[in-house]
Amino acid sequence: MTEKHLSSQFDSELNMVSSRVMELGGIVESQINQAVYALQEFDSETAERVMETESRVNAMEIEIDRELSSIIARRQPTARDLRLLIAISKTTANLERVGDEAHKIARMVKSIIESGAARALPSTELRIAADMASGLLRKALDAFARLDTAAALSILKDDDLIDKEFDGFVRKLVTYMMEDPRTISASLDLLFLAKAIERIGDHAKNIAEFIIYIVKGADVRHASMNEIEAQLQ
Coiled-coil region(s) at which residues (predicted)? Predict the structure, then answer.
C-alpha cells in the first residue's frame, strides 16, 4: 500500500497501521454479511452476534486512531505521507460507522422478528440492496489496499445504483402503507433498514474518495463525475 521510505521503521509503522485498518474492514464486512443473513432468514441469534461485535469495532477504531496520532507526532509527515495518514484515519472512522449501521440493521431485524409482521412486506428488494452495499464495501477495501483510483471511480458510480434501489424501495413501501394502513408500523421498520443499507454504500463511497485524495491530492467529495474523471486522467 505504501511507498518505501529512508526510515524502515516508518515503513513498518505504516504497514502495521494499514494492516489494522484492513483487519477492521474484515470484521465490519463480516458484521454486514451476518446482518444481511439475519434479515434474509429472520434469525434473531445471528442479529444478536452482530450487535455483540460493536464493542470490538469501537475499540479497534480507538486503537488505530491512537496509533495514527503517535505516528504523526513522531514522524511529522508531509505531502503524500500526511495525506495517507489522514485518509487512513477517516477510513477507520467510516468503517466504525458502517459497523454502527450493521448494528442498527441487526437491532431492527430483532424488532421486526418480534413484531411478526415483516414477512408480508417486500423485504426481497431490501436484501438485494444489502448485498450490493456489502459488495461495494468489499471493493472499496480492496481498492484502498492497492490505492487503485480506477476501482475507486467505479465504486463512486456503483453507489448511484444503491441510491436508486433505495428510492424504488421507498416508493414501494409508500404504496403498501397507502393500500393497507395496518402495514405502516412494519413498513417504517423496513424503511429504517433501507436507510441504514444506503448509508453503508455512502461510507464505501467515502473510502473511494479518500483513495483519490491520497493518490492525486484532490478532494473530490463535492465534485461532479466529469470533474473526478478529469482529475484521474
Answer: none
